[in-house]
Structures are given as C-alpha cells and as structure tokens.
Amino acid sequence: MVRWEALKARSRFKVISGEYGGIGNSPSDESEEREKDPKSLTFPAYVSSLLDSGDELMSSGVRMYCENRGGCPSSCHLCHRTGGQNRQEEPVLLEVTKAAPLYELLSDNETQKAIYEAMLSQLWCSGGGDVIDDWCRCDSTTFSVDGLPNCAPLPQPVLRLSPAHEPSSSLVVLEWHHTEPIIGVKIVDYLISLERVTITDRTETSKIETESVLSFVDDIASGSKTPCVMLGKVPDKVSNSISLIIRCLEPDTTYMFTLWAVDNTGRRSRPSAVTVKVPCPLVDDVKAKEIADKIYNLFNGYTSGKEQQTAYNTLMDLGPSTLHRVYYHYNQDYEHFGEFTWRCEDELGPRKAGLILSKLEELSSWCRSLLREPKIILRRISLKYLSCQYSEMKRSGINWQDLSTEVKKICDEQFLTVLYNDYGEHKEF
C-alpha cells in the first residue's frame, strides 16, 4: 500500500472544480508492492510517479501546476535559512478536470459495493447504520438515552404564524410545511402544545403550566377532541403546507405554541416554537356609542330608583373594553353636564360606582391607549376551515403527500366569521 502524507511544509492543494476522492493503484503496481515493504511517499511524489507511469485515468483527470511561493524574508530573525541552496518549485494547486464517484475509480467489485453502501449510510443514516430499502437500520452505538434509534436525522418542522391571516382577539392561524427524506425517517404524527406566558418585566418571562398537548392525527385530523383547534389546510399534490386554526384564546394575552414531528419509532424532533401576543378585546364602537347615549338619558334630570338600577345593570353587563368606549363617548359628548365618573358616583353612589369603574383597570395600558383612539372600526372576514367528523386514522398508513384526499372523506369545508378592530383613521396613500 502507498500511504499519502499530509501537505508538506509549504505545499498547498486546493480542489477548484469537480470532485476528487482518491485514486487506486494499477494491478501491476499492487503486485509489486506486495513483494516489498510499504513505502511512504509525499503526495506530489505519488502524483508524479503516476504521471511518469502513463496512468491514463490520472493523466486525463488531474493537472498539476507548480509555483514558487517565495522564501523567508531576510528581516525575520525568527526564521532559519539554509544558505546556498535554491528552493525547488512546489505544487500549490491541484485541479480536477474530470469528476467521477469514488467507488467507480475502484476496479474491485466488492470494494465498490462496500464504498457505495458506506456512502449511502453517510448520506441517509449519519454514518451510523445501514440503508435497508427506505429506512435506516441503526448501529447499537447510535441509540439515544431513551432507547430509540437515533442515526437517521429527523427534520425539524418550522412553525410560523400564517402570513395570510392576522391574529384576532380570540384566534390565531399557525402553519408549517411537512418535509421528510425519502430514506431513513417516516413521520407519522405531529404534536402541538399551548402555553400561556406571563411577562414579569422587560427582560424575563415566566411560563404558566402547559394548557394542552394535542396530536395532529389522533386529536385534530380525526375530529375527535377539541372544538378549539380546527384544520385549515392539509398537504395535497400541489402543496405540502399544513395549517391549524387555534380558537378560544383570551384577549390581550401572550401564548407560546410549540411543534414537534414524531417518527414511527416514537422519536420527537427538535421543537419549533412561536410566541404570539393576542390583540386587545373586541369592541363594537357603534354599540358603545348607543349605550353612552342611553346612560346620559337615564342620568339626565330626575333619576328614579328604577332608572338608577337600569343604568347600574347596563354598565355592569359590559366588558372592560366596551365600558371604556362608553366612558370615552360619554365624556366626548356630555362632559359639560358632568364627567362620567362623577355622574356615576352621584347617581349610583360610591359603592356601585366603584364596582363599575374598577372594571376599567382590568385592561392593560396598551389596550387602554388603543381604546382612546377617536375611531374604532369593526371589520369582518370569512375564514375557511375543515369540520371533521370522528374517524379513526391510522398513523402507520398515513399518506402525507395526498392527505387531502383522505381528509375530504370525513371533513366538510365550512366558513367561520372572524371579527377584527381597526384603530384610528385610515389614510389613503
């Protein structure tokens, strides 16, 4: 055997096109080498010997350029120079002009097969197992601490907010793309968790315990579990995108959604997480203006006990956001007859007025600032979703590439009305 030594001193080799893996000896060279002790040659010397011997494969695939890179400068006191000798030119660039797979450069069939299998293992099984049909048989040394085979890389899904649907005060749309290699890994399910997050200060967050962890196949696509999570889109022959509609969220709250892919051995991928700040509570500004007018009429002039109770019940039935808009409109239109807070205390008494006004403090400062905008528009859109009846779906037989065909058998397309608030005046540019 001929052993190649690494780059010598000032020699530098660089592949600038094609692929170069290594060159085997001719049969005559190998027979000669078996008869004598192994040699130790530098790589330039080995290349030169092949060129001199007329090796056609080498001469047609490799050219070698020599260039003098200069010597040690005379001003450097740390260099040891050898006087009286001229340095020979050394190879500094190796250009491969013909690319070929490594195993095709070998003439032995068994060696070709071994290298081919090793390359498949490195490509699909991280070099820690053998490719059998379309899966990896992992070596015993590649099992994880929980006893699951770990040689085939499990792709991490990337969860994101849908760019086509903005979050509402109670709903978000999440999506990701289903991807899996053709060999090594078979994804059979996805897990998604929902956590509520509280912000303790500007730099630190603390999580409240996980509210739910759902299986895409068992709990969502099969239509068996929660009405708060619905299918939006599933993979088909055109797209591999999956989207979920998450409902039942609380306004002005931060949530973190985490997604894992699960393969047929039960192994989970690395998680992908999205943190979302849900918008402020929804408000119907037209209705709030009508209630402000009603409260003024109840408070105007002599107020009987019945009218006082009607005003109290009306205001207590309002949510914090609508009450804030009633407060805003009342002061905008009727403040010259008395400010809203003062009129409530005067007509209803300090205790009842305190109960009503305390609801205004339930809103965050962010939402209170938005509710002081002069104009708030209520906007409606229709969102398409899949309403699924219960049907047992087998993980092992799921065909992700054409899941829409399977889903259409148990799901119907329906539309959900989603409400949004637009704050402030809309200007046309």
From TrEMBL:
Query: Gene3D superfamilies this protein is in?
Result: Immunoglobulins
Task: Give the GO cellular component terms, alphabetically.
Answer: endosome; membrane
Q: Where is the Astrotactin-1/2 Fn3 domain?
A: 155-277
Top-level lineage group: Eukaryota
Q: Taking every annotated instance into account, which residue ranges of this chain make up the domain Annexin-like?
A: 280-372
| InterPro entries per the UniProt record, alphabetical | Annexin-like (IPR040685), ASTN1_2_Fn3 (IPR045574), Astrotactin (IPR026995), FN3_sf (IPR036116), Ig-like_fold (IPR013783)
GO annotation terms (biological process): neuron cell-cell adhesion; neuron migration
Give the protein name, as stated in the record: Uncharacterized protein
Tell me what organism the protein belongs to. Answer: Chiloscyllium punctatum (Brownbanded bambooshark)
Give the source lineage, highest ranks first.
Answer: Eukaryota, Metazoa, Chordata, Craniata, Vertebrata
